[in-house]
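Q: Can I borrow your eye for a moment on a structure tokenisation matter? Would you mind producing a protein record, from residues through to fold? Write it directly below this note and I will take it from there.
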Amino acid sequence: MISKAVIPAAGLGTRFLPATKATPKEMLPVVDKPAIQYVVEEAVGAGLSDVLMITGRNKRPLEDHFDRNYELEEALTRKGDKDRLAKVQESSDLATMHYVRQGDPKGLGHAVLCAEPHVGDEPFAVLLGDDLIDLRDPLLSRMVEIQEREGGSVIALMEVDPSQIHLYGCAAVETPADGDVVRITGLVEKPDPSEAPSNLAVIGRYVLDPAVFAILRRTEPGRGGEIQLTDALQELAADESVGGPVHGVVFKGRRYDTGDRGDYLRAIVRLAAEREDLGPEFRSWLRGYVTDEMPQS
């Protein structure tokens, strides 16, 4: 039974400067919750109650957010503000949280390797904080189901326009075996579109066999001088005797890339428009703005 989730969160968030000069990008709000809370909620929703964050310098607010704030809770209690008190306590009650610092920023593969002492010899999930998966479109729970049935590792895939595949890791796959499930035969990091084996992009969800740790320990830095998780997964896919097969789940649901400024704004608009408490008034305003006030090109 998979119970541990690893969330790499040591990045500098340079695409959001100056907002991230002193605030971790993972703490930027999406409507009224920081982006990282959505990710932890997704892990918990898939049955993963033990969460390890891989952090770095200036990431202390992440720990504070998932810890108790007794002064704030006491102030809200005195005011009788039960609704806000529940929201404040929600983040600290979500999961058992652990933290380890990555130290040198040597890439995603190195960040995952930092989790080995905590994870040990059992399968585990990796969730990247820039990818928000709408909780109404479960992905991670499906991946856990496939891993428990087939063994090995499972990665999340998404169809993209072929011209955009150079922005992602790309999977070579065999014929679908079970609807949304494919067997992965190879992976390449950010290929030239003319050389890409498919238009199936790797997105930020993984359920990994612990055999990946031994491979990462001897993986040389690849693209960008970083230790690439894709390179280790390619080795697993090429030799099933190492850590079992590698499957992919092709996701067709709602995903928000909060590492991109445009997608970040679209995520806020979509999620706010669909909220019962905010949506009706916000949608009305948005329609009026788009129709009457938005500058015409």
